[in-house]
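DM from R.C. (forwarded with permission)

"hey, sorry to bug you on a friday — could you get me a structure for this? deadline for the figure draft is monday and I only need the backbone to look sensible"
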Amino acid sequence: MPKILTIAAMRLLDPSGRILLVRKRNTVMFMQPGGKLEVGEDPHDAVIREIEEELGLQLPPGQVHFLDQWRGPAANESNTDIHAYLYTATTALTPVAQAEIEEILWQDPVAALQRNDIAPLLRHHVLPQLVAGPGIQ
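My reply, with the result:
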């Protein structure tokens, strides 16, 4: 039976609709910014904390909105599934790779879906919803 990690992840968009992808140090898969919840931490608080730690962005809590939840395979850990709390925000601020983040890039959702190096959460859930267009969460 796989290990289960509970995480909070951010679908961070820029004003033109591109999504921010991040790659952690010593990994090959791009994913959404975010991370594991600390003991007793609320997922909304966790995603705001992770965005500041990983990207240096201070997003006002009212700008961060809950989307939904997803369960599926982890990108970089074998025999591990994730239970992801998904949030969304749009920003014109410039993120800076910090902490364990090695690389960041803004990508058009259609182009991102064509990549071979994106995490299952992006490939099977987040990007298909973005590509489907407005009204789909």
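R.C.: lifesaver. The chain has three helices and seven strands.
me: no worries. The chain has a mean pLDDT of 94.
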